[in-house]
Backbone:
């Protein structure tokens, strides 16, 4: 069995200093500028606002272990296609 | 320009107030005494916000598995 390289398949370096929206397990969503990250996907983000309340959080550390997904270039709400 | 890593930022926050948002609707604000690789944290002079109810706790060990967001120097708002 070939050893896979120990490199993350997620290339976050290109999203540094860009605005992203993160969704967490448990339903929390935040929007902010990605400053840095580590191998476990813990993030440092700035100018963070919690969604949908727009509560300002500021400079924040996000736990990679609880991240479900991220969106870059914003998201657009669509009609529910499953109904 | 050096970028700061998440654990580095947390290390800098030791001895200051931190505001922690859990996976569910709970929040904690306290003085960070220390943490480990799993983000388990020791906090002092803690205010816990649980469903709108505030509790005061002198010293706690907060389980890292449920911690979602950490705001150094932050306050429950």
Residues:
């Amino acid at each position: 069995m070939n050893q896979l390289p120990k490199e993350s398949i997620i290339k976050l370096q290109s999203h540094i200093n860009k605005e992203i929206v993160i969704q967490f397990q448990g339903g929390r969503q935040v929007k902010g500028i990605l400053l840095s990250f580590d191998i476990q996907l813990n993030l440092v983000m700035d100018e963070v606002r919690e969604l949908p309340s727009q509560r300002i959080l500021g400079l924040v550390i996000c736990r990679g272990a609880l991240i479900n997904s991220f969106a870059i270039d914003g998201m657009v709400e669509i009609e529910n296609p499953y109904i | 320009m050096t970028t700061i890593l998440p654990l580095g930022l947390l290390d800098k926050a030791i001895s200051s107030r931190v505001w922690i948002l859990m996976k569910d609707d709970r929040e904690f604000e306290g003085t960070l005494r220390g943490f480990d690789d799993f983000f388990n944290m020791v906090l002092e002079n803690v205010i816990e916000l649980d469903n709108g109810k505030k509790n005061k706790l002198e010293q706690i060990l907060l389980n890292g598995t449920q911690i979602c967001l950490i705001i150094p120097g932050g306050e429950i708002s």
About this structure: Chain A touches chain B through 24 residues (CB under 8 Å). The mean pLDDT of chain A is 89. The longest strand of chain A covers residues 29-37. Chain A is about 0% helix and 45% strand.
